[in-house]
Design goal:
It is a single chain. By secondary structure, the protein is mostly beta strands. It has one helix and 27 strands. A hairpin with a 4-residue loop joins strand 3 and strand 4. This is Aldose 1-epimerase. It holds the Pfam family Aldose_epim. GO terms for molecular function: aldose 1-epimerase activity; carbohydrate binding.
Amino acid sequence: MMPRTFGLLPDGRPVMQATISGHGLTASVITLGASLQDLRLAGIGHPLVLGFPRLAPYLDEGRYFGAVIGRYANRIAHGRAALDGQRLQLDRNQDGRHMLHGGHDGCGTRNWMLADWDESSVALADHLPAGHMGFPGAMLIRATWSILPGPVLMLTILATSDDTTFCNFAQHSYFNLDGTDTVAGHRLTVPAETYLPVDEDMIPLGAPAAVQGTHLDFRNPVTLAERLKGPRIDHNLCLSDRRRIVPRKAAVLQADGLMMTLRSTEPGLQVYAGEHLAPGAPGLGGRPYGRHAGIALESQLWPDAPNHAGYPSARLEAGQLYRQTTVMSFHRSPKG
């Protein structure tokens, strides 16, 4: 199927949709945010991610659904960071106090260019000028969604800048593997020994803390219903102290006989259980999404890393190539 127009932005620019398939997996990607708009597995009668059949919700309640977010995913406290002795004042789009997902014009809200497409792969590109959202360096970004045997959905993000800058991308899909109203029946496993405690603005307080004895201990499979009634789940789980070349296991999500294993090169996984989701426009299944309708598993660097010397570095040197790989593998598992 050739790429088609998914909708028009208020300024008249078209948002394109490309659908790729192979090995029983079908994914639809839109140029707005380079977003995974739909994901289907043969034999399963419902989508595996939250999304919308029309463009309009992506400009409002569906912001960031399935998007590739950056140039700095997650938060930077007070929109401030130091780089080579220079104090940067970044865009503060979270309540006017902090930077969230690269600012109000971050990559997750921009209309990318459809760069390349074939039956099983689609590549999108974006260009951020020097000074964009307060960051130094003009940056080129290429995000490629590919379907591989397994079946596997792989996201590869490449970026380079003409000046030293900060760089941290993530995919922001909300997963729901059983098609029910919430992810309460899902089981989640994350092999993280520590997490980052945060303040009321979701800004990290400092050093990692042990997950043991907290609602964020997912080292063994946990049925989410046990945790959704407790404290909010919107934290970075620390998988490593540095980025890796070869993806490592970051999470396993199971529901109704289906298992998704997520592997990533990134040292952190932001787990967000969709507390803010509220019924609005109909989603892919024809009904609005309510609280806990999906769970986001965002592979990334640790939030606010530019302001914490002990965190994995977000520094990208001029001319250096940033490469992130996130792999989502799907297979049937015994129910229960």
